[in-house]
Amino acid sequence: MKRLYLLCLICCMFLPAAGMADGKEQLPQKVVYLTFDDGPKKATPELLEILDELDVPATFFLLGYQVKAFPEYTRMIYERGDTIACHTMDHSSGGIKDEPEQLKLVFRRFIQEMQAVLGEDFTADLFRFPGGGTSYPYKTKKMVTDLGWSWFDWNAMTRDTYEDMDAKAVFASVRKTTGGRDVVILLAHDGKKNTRLALPEIVQYYRDGGYTFRKLSSSMEERRILSRCPAHMHLPDVGKEGEQLLLESLEMRKNP
Ligand SMILES: [Zn+2]
């Protein structure tokens, strides 16, 4: 009898744990979110074509004035099924830093601009601070979530806005800043040729590493995945070297 009990105990150790039948076990362990900022740009169709060929989804943090300039490309992003998120109207940060209330206006104008292009059904609730969240006061960050939006930084980056970065260097930066973490939000920019050229290698790198490609959203499923990602709400955990790169990038963005 004792032996039977022991056998059952051992068997149970290898059975799925209680509660796994609710779908939790289906969430991938390793996930990468490709994010492209500052678009749409003249070269957006080229980027979309590459993403199509590679068969990966993406998240676009768009600027309202760029949407106004390139409505057709905005529609192309939308029709591909990628996530469209807000990156302010014009990449300015001063107003919302000093007066968080201004975020209401920023979000309203962004949604209006998007609805003019995509129709009244369009809505958004994801935001990325120009230059990243680290340089904004707590009150501004809190205002974002108080208004029902989520904001995202990144924990890996292409450094594709640096002048000396060719495709090879972009790929090296992706590898270095990814650093083997399970949940990765990769920062890249629309309109950057170095990133477009590096994308096949970047995607292959993540595929070889067993990552699933997903797009950002505020769904419960995504929240569960993102709860394992330190890039969600505070300074990304990217190790000493990666953190230095991030700080450099923030400096560069503050003084372009
Ligand atoms: Zn930006």
Notes on the structure:
It is built from eleven helices and eight strands. With 256 residues, it is of the alpha/beta class. Strand 6 (156-157), helix 8 (167-178) and strand 7 (183-189) form a beta-alpha-beta unit. The strands form two sheets. Strands 1, 2, 3, 6, 7 and 8 form a six-stranded parallel beta sheet that branches. The protein has one domain: Glycoside hydrolase/deacetylase (TIM Barrel, Alpha-Beta Barrel), CATH 3.20.20.370. Residues 4-24, 233-239 and 252-256 have low confidence and may be disordered. The structure holds zinc ion (ZN). Zinc ion (ZN) is lined by residues 37-38, 87, 91, 130.
Heteromolecules bound: zinc ion
What multimeric state do the chains show? single chain
The first-level CATH class name: Alpha Beta
According to DSSP, the number of beta strands is: 8
Tally the structural domains. 1
Our Rg estimate from Cα atoms comes to: 20 Å
Q: What would the principal axes of the Cα set say about the shape?
A: globular
What order do the helices and strands follow? Answer: HEHEHHEHHEHEEHEHEHH
CATH architecture: Alpha-Beta Barrel
Structural class: alpha/beta
**CATH superfamily placement:** Glycoside hydrolase/deacetylase
Major beta-sheet overview: 6 strands, parallel
- Report how far the terminal alpha carbons are from each other: 75 Å
Strand percentage:
5-15%
For the residues shown, what is the average pLDDT? 84
